[in-house]
Amino acid sequence: MQRRGIPLGVVRAVLAAPGQKIPEHDPVVCYQSVVEINRKPYLVRVMVNETVTPPKVVTVYRASKIRKYWKP
């Protein structure tokens, strides 16, 4: 998160209320939401392994190409 410039508060917000939850590579689920970072819209994607207790964040990244990842 730090290396990619994503604040912890943004990650917590996406995990608490994701705009979408999309199954990725089993057993990983992608929690994603459009957020504003440095006055620009980004899609923040949080990959979560939901099969372990507690669920474990695998990786976090932001994407500027929102249409590429956002599912209708």
Textual characterization of the structure:
The chain is built from 2 helices and 4 strands, in the order αββββα. The model has no long low-confidence stretch (mean pLDDT 94). It has one domain (8-66). The chain has a 4-stranded antiparallel beta sheet with strand order 1-2-3-4, with helices on one face. The chain has helices at residues 8-16, 66-69; strands at residues 20-23, 28-37, 40-49, 56-63. The chain is of the alpha+beta class and 72 residues long. It is globular and about 35 Å long.
Strand fraction equals 35-45%
Write down the overall geometry: globular
First-residue to last-residue Cα separation: 27 Å
Round the Cα radius of gyration to an integer and report it: 12 Å
Q: How many strands?
A: 4
Number of domains: 1
What is the element string, with H for helices and E for strands? HEEEEH
Widest sheet, order of strands: 1-2-3-4
Largest sheet: 4 strands, antiparallel
Flag low-confidence runs.
none
Give the rounded overall mean pLDDT.
94
Classify the helix fraction into a percent range. 10-25%
Sheet/helix structural class: alpha+beta
Number of helices, counting only DSSP H or I runs of 4 residues or more:
2
